[in-house]
Amino acid sequence: TYQNNLIGKKQLRQLLAWSFTNYDSMQACALADELKYLGFKYATQAGISISIEDLKIPFIKNLMLEKANQEIINAEKIYLKGKITDVERFQKIDPPTDRSAFLWGPRKTGKTTLLRQQFPEACWIDLLDYDLFLSLSQRPSSLRQILEAQFSKTVVIDEVQKVPNLMDEIHWLIENRGYQFILCGSSARKIRRGKSGLLGGRAWRFELYPLVTKELKSFDLDRALHVGLIPSHYFASSPEMDLKGYVQDYLKEEVQAEALTRNLPAFSKFLRAAAITNGMLLNYSNAARESGVSV
Fold this sequence. Notes:
- The protein is an alpha/beta fold.
- It has helices at residues 9-22, 25-46, 61-80, 111-118, 130-138, 142-148, 166-177, 189-193, 221-227, 231-234, 240-256, 264-276, 284-291, and strands at 100-104, 123-126, 154-158, 180-185, 203-207.
- Helix 7 (166-177) links the parallel strand 3 and strand 4.
- The protein is flat, with a radius of gyration of 26 Å.
- The model has no long low-confidence stretch (mean pLDDT 80).
């Protein structure tokens, strides 16, 4: 594209933005370098002085580069393990440093992967680790000893609903030690039933749902309708068994284990009826008849 116009700062920003939008980043960077050399060339010929401050390199440049390289290495490791695919989640967990956060969401929506990407340097406590789960269940105060051996003041606790009694200890550490906690789980109901608080307004609430179309570079409507938008199901080569296992685990772990319904067979039939009528007007009589219950 030929430009025969006066290029000021505003036009230069627009030109570079256009380049990044219409071409890949390497070509856009090449254009930026060529513009820089062009400026130096004609500034030298015209005898125009350039302030050395314009060329000053930040003293933290090496640290910034090391951090960026480490993030690239971590992302590549996660990718090679198959934990991330051709998708970028829009949800950002960004509380201020004096606030903690809850991240709630259905199983397999990618909560753990998202937090590992956004908090790579945090102290990580995974309550799926049975030894750790047993230790903190029996003695929640042992969390203090674990954190004293860590340098990071940001702590991520995955599957926090497994140990409701841990919430009082977390509250104490926030108030008296200045820790920031990012607490992740599939449901807050078990914590509430355990008579534990949800940090009394000291934590922001975030939720992660299945994928939305804008998060997918290539959206397949037919596939989304057939297998849903749970990331691991949508990208699976043969998602049928994944879907079957997911429904069974959901009924067992989320419904039966938390006693949300006493008539599990009827609820299972209701799930099927709800899936079939998704996007349609709900007829309570038909849904009740299909589920084998009265309205």
